[in-house]
Amino acid sequence: MESPGIVLGFYLLAGLTLGSGGLVFLARNLLHSLAFLVISFLSMAGLFLTLSADFIAMAQILIYAGSISVLMVFAVMLTPLASRDNSNSIYVFPALISAGGIASFVAFIAWDTDWSGPGTDFDSTIGTIGQLLLGKYVLAFEIASVLLLFALVGAIMLVHQRDEDSEGTS
Amino acid sequence: MNLDSPTPMSRQIAEHSTLIERFLGLPKIALLIFVLLIAALGLGNGIIGYLVVAGELDGTWYDIRDLGNVNAALRDAILSSQLNTYIAGALAYLIPAILGATGIVSVVGGWLLIGPWAERRLIAKFQIRQGPNRTGPFGLFQSLADALKLMQKEIVIPTGADRFLYFAPPVAVFIPAILGWAAIPWAPKMSFADMDVGVLFVIAISSLGVLAVFVAGWSSNNHYSLLGAMRTIAMMVSYEIPISLSLLAVVLMTGSTQLSEIVTWQSTHNVWLIVLIPFAALAFLFASTAEINRTPNDIGEAESEIVAGFYTEYSGMKAGLFMAVELGNAILVGALMATFFLGGYTMFGLETWIPGYIILATKIGLVYFLFVWIRGTLPRFRLDQLMGFAWKFLIPVSIILMFIVAIESAIFIRWDVPAAVSLGLFGLINVTGAVIISVVWIRILFKDLDLAAPERPRLVTAVGGLKAAKEIRG
Amino acid sequence: MIEDVLDLILTIGLMHYLIVSGSVFALGSVIALGKRNAVGVLMGVELMLNGAILALIAFSRFPPAGTATTAALEGHVFVVFVLTVAAAEAAIALALAVLVYRKRETVDLDRINLLKW
């Protein structure tokens, strides 16, 4: 953790994550905020790399920046008549207050506690993760795969346009 | 071919001089230079061969078989120098990194100058034309002239374009195209970032270009652009799954997600993975052509349908960047194909004599030639055909074959016979399995499709093509 | 005194990552609660999940002294599950958004208020 590259990288990536996250909130156009969201995801993947979590960083890029954002693009494109502006609702002020509370609470806890753990650099994470997933957590892994299958089928079922339906709604 | 062929076309083919005839027709000076070059090459190879046999090259900094040695020597020199440890650490980290990045960028940049020329000449040969041959010797400077022309063009911003998002995509598609090279091993020590999760890195990086393409299409405020972008996104999202599945088969077989490990596995077992898992290799090749928007799968930018697809509204060097990325992606896919399925920088022991990067570059060139060949041969598929091909054929068959590969890899670890026997058996099973499953699947899927070859071309007959041809003939 | 502050800034530890994680989570909650567009709300939810992931990975990188590597990497396994759930949730939520759009021609959450009465 003494290496200057890590320190510099941490501050750069944290600033990028938080800055583009803030711009997601501030941007006036929904697609602009989507672009900032992707930048935020990518710099978050960089933060994972500084924590020597290479597998999770790649999964983050693949799933968040590569897939979920594309899903959002499809959602925006499939709702052509809906407004594209990114306006706030009336709940934004209570949300701001509660979020400030959350952030300051977490920051206070993080600052006040003595985290004296030495920190370990993992040489290789992917093998151990694989063994854990197919060993200790195999049941959860199977349930997660079933969940994904259900999500896949469910999403198709929800959006699928039946012929008799489309006449009534369109 | 006889000279009195009936049609002008076949006469033209017959009169066309072959490559050897034209080579012998060159001026004497050029032939002399060529002979001298070959002699110099042979002499150099002899010297290198002597050094290799004597074992004087192994691991020294002038071992040109592996440029990673130079980097290692440089790093050691910096670390053992009189500098402050802090500065020396930073320099030892920075200088090899910058050297490697320069190498990658110059290789890709050099290819971007040669590649379009090679492709256009080859396509011209396929279509019995000359191709670009005016600018410089054999038209070699054509891409340089094109780049200069593109740079001088006016930058037009369409009305109603999203000013903020319009400028990002040309850069944003270029970053993944360069980043993907980081994981490729060029020689045992010559890899920019030989990471544990190399395969995942490749897949993740290739999924990044999708959004840039969408942003390009959306911000242009043009229907052709948006259509092209949506087509490209649909294709990329669909064809990412076959790519991932075929790479999963590779990972299962080799038991590693590190690219250098995959290459080492292929060289220690003396077999290319394309022989062991041919369906995965072909699925990867086809899906990659869809992923990088090349013919026959270039529906995202089909000129005859939607102008230039998602970059219709880009002018000047911005459009040039998109085209460059297309080409860069083609050779990146060539490199990945060579690394995963064609043995990478190894060639059954040849890599001790010839530098590994030259072998890899040759393989990349071969895959690129295959791409050009496909482009010159096949017509463009329709959008629904392509999506159907991915979802109805490639993905199910890939999943079934991946199960077979998984069982095989489990057996391979436990079975106590020579690797040649088990791998040979697996290869046989995989080839026959791929053929049988594909045929059965197609029979199930397209039961009512007429698979018998038509006796005469239907469409050509319908528009009167054959009659016209008959009239020309006689 | 100044050395203490400098040390706090220049030695990146668990605290720094937790602060970033909490801030990202709070930012996501603001976006999730305060946006009117359904897709915007989903962006906020994803940011909140991302903040939680960062905390998990930071904890697994700085475990208590004497933790085995296998035990420390269980944090990564949890992250894999969070990613799975995030992907499933995004797919279903966006399908619902499209469905609501088909019925009401809007994805504005303030105007999807049929169940209010």
Describe this structure in words.
Chain A is an all-alpha fold and 170 residues long. Chain A is built from 7 helices and no strands. Chain A folds into 2 domains: 85 residues, Four Helix Bundle (Hemerythrin (Met), subunit A), CATH 1.20.120.1200; 48 residues. Chain B has 474 residues and is mostly helical. In chain B, a hairpin with a 2-residue loop joins strand 1 and strand 2. The longest helix of chain B has 42 residues. The mean pLDDT of chain B is 81. In chain C, 76% of the residues lie in helices and 0% in strands. Chain C has 5 helices and no strands. Chain C is elongated. Chain C is mainly α. The chains are: A mainly alpha (170), B mainly alpha (474), C mainly alpha (117). Chains A and C meet through helix 1, helix 2, helix 3, helix 4 and helix 5 of A and helix 2, helix 3, helix 4 and helix 5 of C.
Could you list some keywords that capture this structure?
heterotrimer, A: 170 residues, mainly alpha, Four Helix Bundle (Hemerythrin (Met), subunit A), globular, disordered C terminus, C: 117 residues, Helix Hairpins, 5 helices, 0% strand
Distance between the termini of chain A: 59 Å
Total count of helical runs of at least 4 residues of chain B:
21
Average pLDDT rating of chain A:
83
Kindly provide the name of the CATH class of the largest domain in chain A.
Mainly Alpha
Which class of secondary structure composition applies to the elements of chain A?
Answer: mainly alpha
CATH 2nd-level architecture of the largest domain in chain A: Up-down Bundle
Query: What's the SSE pattern of chain B?
Result: HHHHHHHHEEHHHHHHHHHHHHH
Instruction: Write the H/E string of chain A, N to C.
Output: HHHHHHH
Residue fraction in strands of chain B: under 5%
- How many strands, which pairing sense, and closed or not: the largest β-sheet of chain A? none
Secondary structure layout:
The complex is a heterotrimer of chains A (170), B (474) and C (117).
Chain A: H1 4-26, H2 30-50, H3 54-77, H4 92-112, H5 126-134, H6 138-159, H7 163-169
Chain B: H1 8-15, H2 19-24, H3 28-54, H4 68-79, H5 85-126, H6 142-152, H7 163-166, H8 168-179, E1 185-187, E2 190-191, H9 198-206, H10 209-219, H11 223-254, H12 259-268, H13 273-276, H14 278-291, H15 303-306, H16 316-341, H17 356-377, H18 383-414, H19 419-445, H20 458-462, H21 465-473
Antiparallel strand pairs in B: 1-2
Helix pairs in contact in B: 4-5, 5-16, 5-17, 6-16, 8-10, 8-16, 10-11, 11-14, 11-18, 14-16, 14-18, 16-17, 18-19
Chain C: H1 2-10, H2 14-34, H3 38-61, H4 69-72, H5 74-104
